Every structure is written in C-alpha cells, then in structure tokens.
C-alpha cells in the first residue's frame, strides 16, 4: 500500500512540477506528516526530490526524472483517460485506485502523446451528473469499508457475511457465497448464492460486511454476463405488473427511470412511443404514470386505466370552478 502511495507521490510531482505538502496530502488522502515521511523515504531511496522554501515553496523533482511507457499509442491513451473521467470511476470503491492508475498512465506517456491525449480527453465527457433536463443521476452510495470487504471476498473467493436491509424488512445478517459484482446504470449488485440458492443483493442495501476466512462454495470459472442475463430473465418472469403505454418521446428516460424493466418498444403512428413495461405492482405503475400527466397514456391493463381515471376525476372535482 505504501509503495503505491510513493509511486503516486512521484507521479504527482512529475505532472505538476512543484506541490506543497498540504496539496500532496489532499491528493493522496493522507496526513501532512505522512507526506513528509514519504518524502524522506524517497530521498533515502535515491529519488531526486527536494524542498523549496518560502511562500511559493514546496516539493519538486530534479528535471528529467521520469519513466517511459512504450507501445501505448495516442488512441489507447485517450481510451484509458476517457474511461477514467466518468462517474463510473467510483464503481465498487475503486475510484482512488483508478485515479492513481491514470496518473501513472499520463506520466509514462511520451511528451507529445501526454499533451495531446490529455487535451483530447477533456473534450469527451462520459455520463455527467445531470442530463439536459437538469435531472441529477441517482448513484448508489456504499460505505468504503463495506465495499472493500465485499470486493475482497469476491476476488479472494471467500465467504461473506453481510448485514442486509431487504425492502420492507428489518436488516438481518446473512452468510453468502459471492460470485461477482455487477454495475448497471450506477447501481451496484452482488451476485451470490445462499444455502445453494441464487441471490442478487443491491449493494446500497448492504449496511455492513465481513469477509470470512473459509472458501466460498462456487465454481472456479464464471460467466457473469450469462448469469446476469439469466437472473434478469427470471426476475421479469416473477409476479410483477406488465403495462402497455403510449408515451411522448421526450419523457422516455424519465419513465424508464421508474419502471423495473422495458419488455418491448416501438414507434406509434402519431410520433409517440408504444412501450411494454414492468412495474412492481399496480400502485407503483399508477404513481409512475401519474407523474407524467398527459404525456403518457396507459393502454393496458384496464384496472390501471380505471385507477388513473378515478384519480383524474377526483382532481377535476377538487379544482372545478364554483357555480
């Protein structure tokens, strides 16, 4: 861990030229005292780092000290920098590791590639926090210590004990055999088995986790894409409500954010979209469609149309003009 931090410290100085101890501490997520100890360790190891005193002082490296990375062309570097620029960098608690890796990539590029790739990456934005309608993306928040335990268990092949808060139930501890981690639209999931049965856990509902020493009961090889596809199909076949709607295209993403899944989609004759959606139940569907007003029409089931009609009638009565 310390070796990675020392490398990151050197790369920060290589990239920025001169930095104060406070700035280095903030970038590395450690105390100023730790930075000073690391600087001393680098000097002892022969790395030419020196201190400049005064108001604009700090730490710097002697000119010309660098490493080279060969075989990485401009487009490959751009792909790495772009991948590291989106909100996905926080997936599974690996944000700081990705930031450190990006520093190494940028520092190791030849001078010409470093400048052009960095400039190009600034012109590509992946998954910003808000869309054109100023709606903020909802990202699952998972405590770092919890995510670290989950990730370690998955990668080490160990059993995992989690304190899980299922919807509508009190949190409880359960021991699972982790298979893998999946992130979909900024929501993270743990794929696992429990007592031999398939289980899928929303990471934001894992309140605490503990990696256990015993080996997980799982196959040595895994095809996460296939497993996720099978579990998604099984989820859609459960007792949920299927709804057919006509929708204004401009509201598509807003409705998809609230539906569980989209089963079918095709353009309608009048320019609207015809969608077959899955909702948790009738209350969920009624609430989601009501938010969109006249931009959406429920075509089926009839019970949902009746519920929306009753709600609209009650609202019209409430706001009707006095006689």
Strand order of the largest sheet: 7-6-5-4-8
Counting DSSP E segments of at least 2 residues, the number of strands comes to: 12
**Main sheet summary:** 5 strands, antiparallel
Number of H- or I-type helical stretches: 11
Mean pLDDT: 80
SS-based class: alpha+beta
Output the helix-strand order. Answer: HEHHEEHHHHEEEEEHEHEEHEH
Report how far the terminal alpha carbons are from each other.
Answer: 77 Å
Shape: extended
Instruction: Tell me the helix content.
Output: 25-40%
| Oligomer class | single chain
Rg from Cα = 26 Å
Q: Residue ranges: pLDDT <50 for 5 or more in a row?
A: none
Estimate what percentage of residues fall within beta strands.
Answer: 15-25%
